[in-house]
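Quarterly update from the structural biology core.
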Amino acid sequence: MPRLAANLSLMFTEHPFMDRFAAAAEAGFRGVEYLFPYEHAAADIAAALETNGLTQVLFNLPPGDWEAGDRGLACLPGREAEFRESVATGLSYAERLQCRQLHMMAGIAPVHADPARVEMTYLANLHYAATQAEAAGVSLLIEPINPIDMPGYFLRRAGQALDLIHRARRVAGERGAQNIALQLDLYHRQMLEGRLSDAIDEYLSETAHIQIAGVPGRQEPDANGEVNWAWVLDVLDRDGYAGWVGCEYRPAATTLEGLDWASKWLNHKGVSA
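Predicted structure, tokenized:
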């Protein structure tokens, strides 16, 4: 049975951020994720998680200056010191929130940078972050993001991500970097390549976290889009996926109004069972 995690950066936005934890729990979710926690004290978030019986499933390392266009630091030559500071910050929050997975955003490759240098910067930062995360008992996840939603993003395809994971492991040696895993967002996969069942077959063994959203529009993963998400979730069950499925979508109206698609997996008074 899929374990659904509500993405609180996109869902329940009719409430202030710190109130979304209670709203998610009331809706029947037992896990939450979001983009970034850093505008709030870790102690306050930890209290919200404990009060509402929620598991912190995932969040991202600090992305740099989001307002200025940064979408992660890992592939950016010359910003290695800032990247290392971001790893320390992310791991500090992960420890306080008892979160065992962090997503390392790759970043948007500089237009005029040497592609080989960009890739080597990414690999060096991936190795560093994985080493630090492993010492903290945390898995480091990397996620391909489609260039329609995020033009210029360094990491676009699951095959590219898997190749980089394998290369990082070779650099680390036989027992190193085993805590690097794929964050397989099936919305991004559908937007760029399609063939979701092929992606599950090929990449599930290296995947620690799944995310879903309706295509097109990134709204509810319901029957109104081009993907049969109930079938996809059944395939994940069939193949023995035991991780969380992050609901990273923007509700068309209020979050509760659009939750009927999840009635098979959520049981609460706001969604028909």
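Residues 115-135 form the longest helix (21 residues).
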